[in-house]
Amino acid sequence: LLLDLSLSLPAVSETAPIAIGCTPESDPYALPTMMVEFVMRELGWNARSLGTNLPLELLAPAMEDMQPSLCWVSVSYVDSPNRLREQLEFLEEKGRADGIRIMCGGQAITYELREGIRDVTFVGDLCELETVLRTG
């Protein structure tokens, strides 16, 4: 069904901003990151989910190669909050250094994980993601 849905999305413009994303290590849930990709494509982004269970440090080479304007992390499951927090702080620094907006959301994001991470935009659900992307 999702593959059929993806075929109905409008073609992406060659000048569309690029966005990449994934789920962090230990998070096997593909559906949420695919849904982020679909929402972003519907809004005109050249969005691509890089998959699930990915150590966020591995996004750095993809960020260098693909030069996205935005990088997202979809978090449905966390086995080590401290490890995820370290990875989000790494992405925060990378995004700040390279001018890449970092967005994060999902049912497993807690206030404690968010606390003190200033340069990551946290969203609660896909509706909020759409609103944030439409309003800048």
Shape: globular
How far from one another are the termini? 30 Å
Low-confidence stretches: none
Major sheet attributes:
5 strands, parallel
Overall average pLDDT: 93
Jot down its keywords:
five-stranded parallel β-sheet; single chain; 44% helix; alpha/beta
Can you walk me through this structure?
The chain is an alpha/beta fold and 136 residues long. Helices cover 44% and strands 17% of the residues. The chain is built from six helices and five strands, in the order H-E-H-E-H-E-H-E-H-E-H. It has helices at 2-8, 30-42, 59-66, 81-98, 111-114, 126-135, and strands at 18-22, 46-49, 70-74, 101-105, 120-123. The protein has a five-stranded parallel β-sheet, sandwiched between helices. Strand 1, helix 2 and strand 2 form a beta-alpha-beta unit. Helix 2 packs parallel to helix 6. The longest helix has 18 residues, at 81-98. It starts with a helix and ends with a helix. 30% of the residues are buried. The model has no long low-confidence stretch (mean pLDDT 93).
What's the structural blueprint in terms of helices and strands?
Blueprint lengths: L1 H7 L9 E5 L7 H13 L3 E4 L9 H8 L3 E5 L6 H18 L2 E5 L5 H4 L5 E4 L2 H10 L1
Parallel strand pairs: 1-2, 1-3, 3-4, 4-5
Helix pairs in contact: 2-6
